[in-house]
Amino acid sequence: MQFYSTNNKALRVSFQEAVFNSLPQDKGLYMPEVIPQLDPYFIKNIQQYSLQEIAFTIAKAFIGNDIPDADLKSIVDDAINFEAPVKFLDAETAVLELFHGPSYAFKDFGARFMSRVMGYFSKQGEQLLDVLVATSGDTGGAVASGFLGVEGTRVTILYPKGKVSKVQEEQLTTNGQNIRALEVEGTFDDCQALVKEAFNDPDLNNALRLTSANSINIARLIPQTFYYFWTYAQLKSQGMDEIVFTVPSGNFGNIGAGLLAYKMGLPVAHFVAATNVNDTVPRFLQHGIYEPKPSVQTLANAMDVGNPSNWVRIQDLFGQDLDQLKAKVSSYTYTDEQTLEGMEELFQKYKYVACPHTAIAYLASKAYRNEHPGEYASVFLSTAHPCKFPEAIKPEVFQHVALPDGASALAEKEKQAVEMPVDYKTFKTYLLVNN
Ligand SMILES: *Cc1c(COP(=O)(O)O)cnc(C)c1O
C-alpha cells in the first residue's frame, strides 16, 4: 500500500516514508492510495474476534507486507495491551471507554502504535530520530509514555503553559530519559505553529532527523480505527448492529478514523462531531465556509483547536462532496456552562463521572437522538479518564472518581520543563544547541 498527499494524489510514498515524513512536503496529509475494504465475511463474524485480532486484521490491510505478519502482530499486541469496554448507561445509550491505557486517554492507541512502528523501522546505528510534538494536553502524555525508552528516539513536547491540567502536565514533564518538555508561553495553536515551522526549516532538517507524533501522522490514524470495529463487535454480540457514534472532537483525528473505518466497510448509521466553542467544523457544516479562528480556552482543553488539522483528510474521504459529508456527519457545539451541566447530569442520572470532553459527547449524542428518534444504539466516546481533569469537575462529584494505579505516584516525581517564548528563533536555537 502506498500513501498520497491530499494536495497531490500523484505524489506517492511507502508506509515507512509516510510515517517518518509525517507531513508531505506540499503540506497536505498522507492518505492511503485506496481505502482497504475489509472482507464482508470478517465483518459479519467480527464478534468472534478479540480487540487485538481485529486490530491486526485492520493494520495488515493498510501495511500489507511492509511489516511481516509476526512483527506486526507483536507491535499490535504490545501497543494495544489494555481494554476498551463499551458500557451501557441505559438500553440505547452506551459509552465507549478509551482511557484504560497508561496515559488515561484515547491517544494511547495512536501514540503506542506509532512509537512501536517507528522503533521497528529505525535501524541500528542510524541518526537519532527527533520526534517533535505539540500538545493541547493529552497527546504529550501519550507520546511520552509511548516513546519512553524506545531506543534511537528523542521526543520534544511543546505544551501551552498554564493551559493543561495538573495530571496532564505531570505525565509529560516527569519522564526524563529520552523525553523533553517545553513549556510554551502561548496557546496550543502557537505550539503547533512552532512545530510546523521546524518541519519546513532546511537548517533543522539538515542537522536533525525530524519527525512528528501529532495526530496528523498516518501511524496514529490507523490504530484509532480499531476501536470502532471493536465497538461494533461488542454490540453485535448483544444483537445490536445499528450504531450512531458521537465523538468529542478537537483536531478531528478521532472522528476521522471513525469515518475511515466506515469507508472500509464498517456499518455505521451516522457520526456526530461534538465540539466545545471552538466550532470551526460545525460552522463549516452549517454554512459551507471553512473559516478557522484562533482557539479559545475551555474546560475541555484537549479540544481547544481553532483550525483542526485532520479536517482535510475527512474532506478527502468524501471526495470534497459537502452534501455527502453532511448526510453522514452532524455536529453540535457546547459552552463550558453546558459542559458542566452535562457532567452533572451524567452523574445524577447514571452515577457516571465523565471528563469534560466525554460530557460534551454525551450532550451531543442526546441532542442527536432528540432530533432523530429511532432504534439504534447511541455510542459516545469517552476520550479521557476524569482523574485528568480535577479542576473541571465539582469536588462532590470528583470524590467518586477512583484514581487509577500510578496516578498518585506521578505527583511525587520532579517536573522537568524548559520555558519557551512563542518565538521561532529561540525554539530553533534550543533544538540545535541541545543536540
Ligand atoms: C485529543 C483529545 C480529544 C480530541 O481528539 P481529536 O482527535 O483531536 O479530535 C478529545 N478528548 C480528549 C480527552 C483528547 O485528549
UniProtKB/TrEMBL annotation:
The Tryptophan synthase beta chain-like PALP domain, residue ranges: 96-381
Residues in Threonine synthase N-terminal domain copies: 2-79
Domain of life: Bacteria
Gene Ontology molecular functions: threonine synthase activity
Enzymatic reactions: O-phospho-L-homoserine + H2O = L-threonine + phosphate
Matching InterPro entries: Ser/Thr_deHydtase_PyrdxlP-BS (IPR000634), Thr_synth_N (IPR029144), Thr_synth_N_sf (IPR037158), Thr_synthase-like (IPR004450), Threonine_Synthase (IPR051166), TrpB-like_PALP (IPR001926), TrpB-like_PALP_sf (IPR036052)
Keyword DNA-binding applies: no
Alphabetic keyword roster: Amino-acid biosynthesis, Lyase, Pyridoxal phosphate, Threonine biosynthesis
Class of enzymatic activity (EC top level): lyase
Pathway annotation: Amino-acid biosynthesis; L-threonine biosynthesis; L-threonine from L-aspartate: step 5/5
Protein family per UniProt: Belongs to the threonine synthase family.
PANTHER family, per the entry: THREONINE SYNTHASE FAMILY MEMBER (PTHR42690), THREONINE SYNTHASE-LIKE 2 (PTHR42690:SF1)
NCBIfam families according to UniProt: thrC
Protein name: Threonine synthase
Phylogenetic lineage: Bacteria, Pseudomonadati, Bacteroidota, Sphingobacteriia, Sphingobacteriales
